[in-house]
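REQUEST FORM: STRUCTURE PREDICTION
Request ID: SP-0412
Submitted by: Lab K.M.
Chain count: 1
Length (residues): 333
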Amino acid sequence: MEKKERPVLISVIVPIYNTLNYLQRCVDSIRSQTYKYLEIILVDDGSTDRSGAMAEKFALEDRRIKVFHKENGGVSSARNLGIEKARGEFIGFVDSDDYIEPQMYERLLMVAVQEELVMVQISRDEIDEEGNRMEDVCRPPGEPELWDNVHFMRELLLHRGDCSFCTKLTKASLLKEERFPEGELNEDFRLLVSLLTKVPAVAVLPEQDYHVFYRYGSNTRTRNRDEFPRVFTDIVNNADRVEEIVRRQYPQLQAEAVRFALFQRLDYMLHIPISMMNKENEFYMQVWDYLKRHKKEIKQNPYLTKKNKQYLLLLATAPAQARKVHATIKRLD
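STATUS: Completed
RESULT:
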C-alpha cells in the first residue's frame, strides 16, 4: 500500500504584547483559514494585561495552537522564539492586532508549491481605529506577478515594495539561517534585504487578504507632535546598510539606493521635533551633514520628485526654515 503524502505544514507565528482587545479577532481569523494544516504559535512577549491568559484559553480550544511566554523583549525577540519552535516547512507571521482573510494561506501555499518558490507575498490594506479603509501603502498589482530579487530590491528602494513579513509565506529554512534583528525597529526591512540574495524570485499576488489595523500608540504612530518614535532613526541606519548591500550585490541599482538614502533622511527631518534640531543631537547633525554633502546627488537623482528635491535642498541649507515651510503647507492641505 502506497504511503499517503502528508500535507505541507505552515507555522503561523503571532507575537503578542498587550493586545487583549484585538487578539480574539486576530486568532479567529487564523483558525478560520481554509487551509487547515497549520501550527499556530502564540508568543506572549511579557504582556501585562490578560493577553497571555487569553492565549492559553485559545490553546485549550484548538490543539493546533501552542503558547510560549517570555520576558518582554520586543517583536523581533518574540518572532525569533516562534521561529525556533516552529516545525512547519513554511512560516507566516500575523501581528496580534491585525487579521487575515480565510483563504490567505491556501492561496499563498498553492503558488509557492506550484512555482517552487521560497517566498510568496499577498497584498494588504490598512484599517483605521474607526474601521475605515485607508489609502494603500503598497499598491497591489492588477494580476499575479513574479519578481526576481533585483526587481524586488528596486521596488523596495523606490518605496513601492512591501517589506513586511506578515504578508509573506516564507520557507522555514531561510528564517532558520538568519533571524530578525533584536532591539531595533524597521526589523522586517532589515531582514528582508539581507535575505533577498537567497531568494531567486517572489510571487506577488493582488488579493488584499492581510488587514493591517492602524492604531495610535504603536511604535511608529503617535498623535503627540513632541514625540519622536525611534523608528525614524532606524530607517536612516537601515538606509546606510542597504546602500552597502546594493554596492556589493546590486550595483545596477546604485541610483535607486542613493534615492532611498536621501528619502529616508527626508522622512527623518520632516518628523523630528524642532526642539530636537540642535547641535547637541549628534544623530540629527549627522543627517544634516549627509544632506549638505549630497546636494549634487539631490539635484541629479532621477528617482526623486521635484517636491522631494526642493525639500531636501531646503533642509540641507536651512532645516528650521524648511520645517516652517512644511508646517505651512500641511495647514493649507
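NOTES: Residues 231-249 form the longest helix (19 residues).
Reviewed by: T.R.
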